[in-house]
């Protein structure tokens, strides 16, 4: 089932702080406060400072909702735009999509509570109804063969914005945000979804069944590749093609790079996962040649700026990846080399990947008889670095195979 995407309704987090330019205070249990100052030092740089102080009862205060709606933003300002009621690239991307309801919400239905103080959290951290909402951008004729574009960790469907127009000329193309990312639901861990890799496998099955009645081709990038391969191994009859973009395939790939593993650390990870610059900008630009434009950065930062639920989800999936990735990479190797694997598979590899080494990848593809396509100018996020080129490659691979 699909519903037209609409900006989330106004909802408040139980934590509130007062906002008065240029500083604001967050009351503490001991009567003190954190004083927050956001100051732009120079173009494209933002300085965030926290200092302890005593609150002043005479100071004028306006309630500021931490878990604010997308339309309201959170007051942060970056060069090139402001998260406010003014038009911005994130709003434009949101308008292109819709919500698809898939995968039943688990748990007891209890309202999610903040893990520190036990207070009921805002709507952004709650499960939505009986089924989760997945943000999906769909293009092309629905009568054409379906191609589903699956982003990596951590990223968004937005990363395929350059690929979509190329593929949609001949294919029914769908790009979606995983649960916990982008505009999709981000329930607080342990309240309907725990962000384990096995849950993601089951959730993907539900989503694919909802959006495509017939066979599909899957394109997946990065650290979510083992999840998709696991799904594919159980539903080979559903797939025409599987195209893997810089997937973890070897024992050396089984550990997250420090840029990502830090989000799983005790306390420190919980803090850093709430930092939009570290969770989006650094995570996307430290793994290859990708130079993020400010307009694109505004889209990637948006979820982390409008609700703490994105950070909680990032922390949870990072912990799951740290715990389960090694086993899933081993399973991926076993599945793709098994004689019973019948899905036509291609590995596209950005040679400038700083996270995953190319060593052993070529040998793996030769031994498993899978096609390998190298993209010398791309890094880990192939679709960001070489989007239009990648779209042409995918289109050629699928069209040739469908004809034959």
UniProtKB/TrEMBL annotation:
AB hydrolase-1 domain: residues covered: 145-385
SUPFAM superfamilies named in the record: alpha/beta-Hydrolases (SSF53474)
Pfam families per the UniProt record, alphabetical: Abhydrolase_1
Keyword Hydrolase included in the entry's annotation: yes
Keyword entries, A-Z: Hydrolase
UniProt superkingdom: Eukaryota
UniProt keyword Hydrolase present: yes
PANTHER family cross-referenced by the UniProt entry: AB HYDROLASE-1 DOMAIN-CONTAINING PROTEIN, HYDROLASE-RELATED
Protein name, per record: AB hydrolase-1 domain-containing protein
């Amino acid at each position: 089932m699909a519903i037209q995407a609409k900006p989330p309704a106004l909802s408040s987090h139980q934590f509130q702080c007062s906002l008065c330019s240029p500083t604001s205070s967050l009351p503490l249990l001991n009567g003190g406060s954190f004083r927050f100052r956001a100051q732009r030092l120079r173009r494209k740089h933002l300085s965030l400072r926290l200092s302890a102080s005593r609150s002043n009862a005479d100071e004028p205060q306006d309630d500021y909702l931490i878990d604010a709606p997308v339309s309201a933003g959170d007051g942060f300002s970056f060069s090139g735009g402001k998260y406010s009621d003014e038009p911005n690239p994130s709003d434009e991307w949101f308008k292109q999509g819709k919500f698809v309801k898939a995968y039943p919400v688990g748990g007891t239905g209890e309202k999610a509570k903040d893990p520190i103080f036990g207070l009921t959290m805002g709507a952004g951290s709650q499960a939505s109804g009986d089924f989760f909402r997945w943000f999906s951008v769909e293009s092309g004729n629905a009568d054409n063969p379906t191609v589903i574009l699956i982003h990596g960790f951590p990223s968004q469907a937005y990363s395929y914005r350059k690929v979509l127009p190329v593929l949609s000329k001949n294919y029914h193309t769908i790009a979606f945000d995983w649960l916990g990312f982008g505009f999709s639901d981000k329930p607080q861990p342990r309240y309907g979804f725990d962000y384990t890799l096995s849950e993601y496998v089951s959730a993907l099955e539900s989503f694919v069944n909802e959006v495509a009645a017939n066979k599909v081709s899957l394109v997946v990038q990065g650290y979510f590749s083992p999840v998709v391969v696991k799904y594919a191994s159980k539903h080979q009859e559903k797939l025409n093609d599987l195209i893997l973009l810089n997937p973890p395939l070897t024992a050396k790939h089984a550990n997250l790079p420090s840029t990502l593993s830090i989000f799983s650390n005790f306390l420190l990870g919980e803090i850093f996962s709430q930092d939009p610059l570290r969770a989006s900008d650094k995570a996307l630009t430290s793994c290859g040649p990708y130079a993020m434009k400010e307009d694109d950065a505004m889209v990637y930062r948006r979820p982390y700026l409008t609700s703490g639920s994105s950070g909680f989800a990032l922390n949870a999936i990072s912990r799951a990846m740290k715990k389960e990735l090694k086993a899933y990479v081993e399973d991926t190797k076993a599945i793709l080399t098994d004689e019973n694997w019948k899905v036509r598979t291609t590995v596209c590899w950005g040679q400038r990947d700083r996270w995953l080494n190319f060593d052993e990848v070529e040998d793996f593809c030769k031994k498993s008889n899978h096609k390998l396509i190298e993209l010398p100018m791309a890094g880990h996020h192939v679709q960001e670095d070489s989007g239009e080129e990648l779209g042409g490659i995918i289109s050629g691979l699928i069209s040739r195979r469908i004809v034959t």
